[in-house]
Write a structure and sequence with these properties.
Elements lengths: L1 H15 L11 H38 L5 H8 L3 H13 L3 H4 L3 H16 L10 H10 L2 H15 L14
Length: about 170
């Protein structure tokens, strides 16, 4: 799903960029493309973040199957903060430390989760939500790099799960 949204995002961004002119008022066409663009970009962040969470939770599931834990210990594993879970909990449980091999990727995951949180939990200051900052971050986000890094993380823990499609379709 993230791949489909990423392709839609790129198409909408290409369509929107030439239409943005700070001197002009937005017409209905520009607003329609803008809202489609923003919705699709939000979906990319959500699906990529969910892909990481699902991978981590599968690792926790595998650990729980072979361990004797009480309910609180299980709950603490699942509900650990994202950055702690990906950097500490998963390596401890899986005995695989992704960040020893790819130390710079933690920053990429942090940016993804921060963007997801900013979009999902946007908080107004003085009664106004600063969508200009969020939109600027959406336009400048490194989508391809993040997508590739998430796929690399998933394949690190579940070898061969994500592969190139040889069907000539661009999903």
């Amino acid at each position: 799903m993230a791949q489909t949204n990423l392709n839609q995002f790129k198409q909408l961004k290409d369509k929107l960029m030439p239409l943005i002119n700070p001197e002009d008022k937005c017409n209905d066409e520009v607003l329609h493309i803008y809202f489609d663009f923003y919705g699709v970009s939000c979906s990319v962040f959500l699906f990529l973040a969910m892909s990481l969470e699902t991978t981590m939770n599968l690792i926790i599931d595998d650990y729980i199957k072979i361990s004797i834990l009480n309910k609180k210990e299980i709950r603490d594993l699942y509900f650990s903060k994202f950055k702690n879970k990906i950097k500490n909990v998963v390596p401890r449980l899986s005995k695989l430390n992704y960040f020893k091999t790819y130390p710079n990727d933690f920053f990429i995951f942090s940016k993804l989760i921060d963007m997801r949180n900013n979009i999902a939990h946007s908080k107004p200051e003085n009664g106004i939500t600063n969508y200009d900052v969020i939109l600027n971050n959406v336009f400048n986000f490194k989508y391809d790099l993040t997508f590739e890094t998430v796929a690399k993380y998933i394949n690190f823990h579940r070898k061969g799960l994500i592969t190139e499609c040889d069907c000539s379709n661009d999903y």
